[in-house]
């Protein structure tokens, strides 16, 4: 220190780690005042040290002052919230990180964040928002097994938790399981909302379930819900999938599959009539409506084997 290296970022980071290990919170606060703008390494080290000593407020200050935050900085801040038993804020911050453009979350960072969040959240009972956030987070990361594990371990599940789980299954290509989960929710006596119907219709689209799609779409108004562009979009995806299969079947002279696809297309025509498509006379019309209403559509999946 007497040689004037106290402002060197490497020396400063070493001091922060040392005092954090020793439990000297007041010294950390003093060091924080001396960091000034600092650099990313020393600021990140301050976040880790402050959170370790239980002062999440002090940890947040250098994080907010970072001119540029890399994935590591976001990860340690989220972990800091969970470590200080503020898992909800940690998950909310993770959501902000996910929406930030230009950030590439590597596998080790994602595993660390998910593991530390799960470790605390599974102990919290009765908070549907946390459960839904975790299910959604795991599903978007492609770990549907963990997403459903979190879902099943929830003692109390509200309509949002169920809807999120169904959406996660559909998103990962498990349309049939999505539809089954909807049936289980009905048996539990929960009233579906518009998000629920979007999820189950996505499941029908993924699995190629035409009859179920017609059935569920017909149920929407029965629950006092006006069909939204997202609901129509799921039906359009299903229509497009069977139409593509019909063309492929004709191309490869697969008569049996062509007959099946034609049958499904006819059933879907009944649905088009039932919902009064009006400006939906073409797929382009539906897409234009969704675009005008600024609906963000997750690309659909179709898991139909032709055996051709």
UniProtKB/TrEMBL annotation:
<dbReference type="InterPro" id="IPR046960">
    <property type="entry name" value="PPR_At4g14850-like_plant"/>
</dbReference>
<feature type="repeat" description="PPR">
    <location>
        <begin position="193"/>
        <end position="227"/>
    </location>
</feature>
<keyword id="KW-0677">Repeat</keyword>
<dbReference type="GO" id="GO:0009451">
    <property type="term" value="P:RNA modification"/>
</dbReference>
<dbReference type="Pfam" id="PF01535">
    <property type="entry name" value="PPR"/>
</dbReference>
<feature type="repeat" description="PPR">
    <location>
        <begin position="158"/>
        <end position="192"/>
    </location>
</feature>
<dbReference type="InterPro" id="IPR002885">
    <property type="entry name" value="PPR_rpt"/>
</dbReference>
<dbReference type="GO" id="GO:0099402">
    <property type="term" value="P:plant organ development"/>
</dbReference>
<dbReference type="Pfam" id="PF13041">
    <property type="entry name" value="PPR_2"/>
</dbReference>
<protein>
    <submittedName>
        <fullName>Pentatricopeptide repeat-containing protein</fullName>
    </submittedName>
</protein>
<dbReference type="GO" id="GO:0003723">
    <property type="term" value="F:RNA binding"/>
</dbReference>
<dbReference type="InterPro" id="IPR011990">
    <property type="entry name" value="TPR-like_helical_dom_sf"/>
</dbReference>
């Amino acid at each position: 220190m007497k040689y004037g290296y106290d402002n060197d970022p490497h020396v400063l980071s070493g001091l922060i780690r040392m005092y954090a290990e020793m439990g000297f919170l007041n010294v950390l606060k003093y060091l924080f005042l001396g960091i000034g703008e600092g650099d990313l390494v020393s600021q990140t080290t301050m976040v880790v040290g402050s959170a370790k000593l239980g002062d999440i407020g002090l940890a947040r200050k250098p994080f907010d002052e970072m001119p540029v935050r890399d994935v590591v900085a976001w990860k340690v801040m989220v972990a800091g919230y969970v470590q200080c038993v503020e898992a909800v804020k940690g998950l909310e911050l993770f959501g902000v990180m996910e929406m930030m453009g230009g950030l590439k979350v590597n596998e080790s960072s994602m595993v660390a964040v998910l593991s530390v969040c799960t470790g605390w959240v599974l102990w919290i009972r009765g908070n549907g928002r946390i459960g839904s956030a975790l299910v959604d987070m795991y599903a978007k990361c492609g770990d549907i097994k963990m997403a459903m594990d979190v879902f099943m371990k929830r003692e109390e599940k509200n309509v949002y938790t169920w809807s999120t789980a169904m959406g996660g299954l559909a998103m990962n290509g498990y349309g049939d399981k999505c539809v089954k989960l909807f049936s289980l929710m009905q048996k539990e006596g929960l009233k579906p909302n518009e998000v629920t119907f979007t999820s189950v219709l996505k499941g029908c689209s993924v699995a190629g379930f035409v009859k179920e799609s017609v059935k569920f779409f017909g149920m929407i108004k029965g629950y006092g819900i006006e069909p939204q562009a997202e609901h129509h979009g799921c039906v359009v995806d299903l229509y497009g999938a069977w139409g593509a299969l019909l063309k492929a079947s004709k191309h490869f002279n697969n008569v049996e599959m062509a007959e099946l696809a034609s049958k499904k297309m006819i059933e879907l025509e009944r649905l088009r009539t039932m919902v009064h498509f009006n400006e939906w006379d073409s797929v382009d019309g539906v897409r234009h409506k969704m675009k005008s209403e600024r609906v963000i559509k997750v690309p659909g999946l179709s898991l139909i084997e032709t055996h051709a």
